[in-house]
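Ticket #4471: structure export looks truncated?
Reporter: QA, pipeline team
Priority: medium

Steps to reproduce: submit the single chain below to the structure queue and open the exported record.
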Amino acid sequence: MRNGIQVVTTSPDETRIVGACLAPTLLPGDVISLSGDLGAGKTVFVQGLATALGVESGVTSPTFTIVHEYEGRYPIIHMDVYRLDSFQEVLDLGFEELLDPQAVLLVEWGEAVTPLFPRSYLSIEIRQAADDDHRLLVFRPRGPQWLSKLEGMKETAEALLDAASLESTDAPRFVDAPPEGPRDHAAMDHDVEEG
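Actual output as written to the record:
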């Protein structure tokens, strides 16, 4: 798991299951970067995670409002930086305050503001596969504590995905992620320019 792990989900419900399985491993102060194509399932993943953390209100994309805050087991701050044009705009929003040690921070399009993240965070890339319902989720730990968190998520998610699947297979759903390419550390689809 040195490079991380990846899984293919076959429906929005399966993507929510994976998000829900990550939730029990999270602690206040954890930061997660979500990247991927428009409409790939970043908010769907957050829905599963937030519900598992006890959020009862509907979780929606913060694309237009930039930040949504939810109360669950811990406060959850869900941010989308897609519409922002510079690091300064992100800082003007109070990003440093959003890095609340009492909350879990989830940042959609987070790859665009990686330099603002703490040293330890989890990077999740969600890509739409050839089939409209299939998604590739790639989890890359940035910091050693994420390895055990991902291992815990993987064990729970394997069992729940197998139980929810209509297809029977003996092959594991999670596999090691390939090594990162040169663009994986930079912004992928949407670049936020330094201002």
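Status: closed, not a bug. The export was complete when the record was re-opened. Leaving a note from the reviewer for reference: The chain has one domain: 5-176.
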